[in-house]
Amino acid sequence: MTVHYHRGDLPSDVNLGALVAIDTETLGLSLTRDKLCVVQLSSGDGDAHIVQLDRSSYDCPNLKTLLADPGTEKILHFARFDVAMIKTYLGVTLAPVFCTKIASKLSRTYTDRHGLKDVTRELVGADMNKQQQSSDWGADTLSQAQLDYAASDVLHLHELRAKLTSMLEREGRMEMAKACFDFLPTRADLDLAGWPETDIFAHS
After folding, report:
1. What is the DSSP letter of 95?
2. How far apart are the C-alpha atoms of 160 and 101, rounded to whole Å?
3. Strand, coil or helix: what is 110?
4. What are 7-48's pLDDT values in tens digits?
5. Quick check: is 66 in a domain?
6. Is residue 198 part of a domain?
7. How many structural domains is the chain composed of?
8. Residue 167 is part of which domain span?
9. What Cα–Cα distance (Å) separates residue 124 from each residue in 116, 118, 159, 165?
């Protein structure tokens, strides 16, 4: 694994291809309180690019161009959160998206364990170290432990997408999954507009 650490923006000469694994790190889990700090990306080649954002301006045109590209599919785990954060702070609507958490819930109905660590352990056979999950992502300089943690969150997403796609197709649920993925920007808008928990489709 090679980790490339970029401050401010993704270099213009980085080509990640048409299928990119993406994750974010924030100051916390509140969409209205906690700022976006880091975006990590991988093309599935074993390398990870960690972009530490300038939170005073969020001026990162190269990263924004990649994220906004409709010809690039973005693979995320629990994309609902990342889609909302990226829209809020970078002004970009992520699409198209493949969410490995949604795919897991629609295909791995034999378990209630759909966290990235659990899905990766079962389908890829890799154990992820979550020790740095709760750390200060707003620090001036990220530690090597933080960089390694951030990288680990995107290194297996391509393989997970392939495994989960096979399971969804086997169970005849791929079209349902795609419809859920397409709805994610609207789900994020509902979260940001004040309906994070309310089921608007419920009778009452």
Report:
1. -
2. 10
3. coil
4. 999 999 999 999 999 999 999 999 999 999 999 999 999 999
5. yes
6. no
7. 1
8. 2-193
9. 11, 10, 7, 14
The pair of structure tokens assigned to 87 is 């829209």
Residues facing residue 40 across a β-bridge: 23, 50
Give me the residues of the chain with pLDDT under 70, please. 130-133
Q: Which residues contact 75 (CB under 8 A, 6 or more apart)?
A: 19, 20, 21, 22, 97, 98, 100, 157, 158, 160, 161
Q: If you ran DSSP here, which 8-state letter would residue 96 be given? A: S
DSSP state of 141: S
Per residue in 163-176, pLDDT (tens digit) is 999 999 999 999 99
- What CATH number is associated with residue 81? 3.30.420.10
Judged by phi (left if over 0) then psi (alpha if -120 to 50, else beta), residue 194 lies in: left
- Structural domain includes residue 50: yes
- The helix/strand/coil state of 4 is strand
**Cα separation, 14 vs 104, whole angstroms:** 30
Instruction: Specify if 70 maps to a domain.
Output: yes
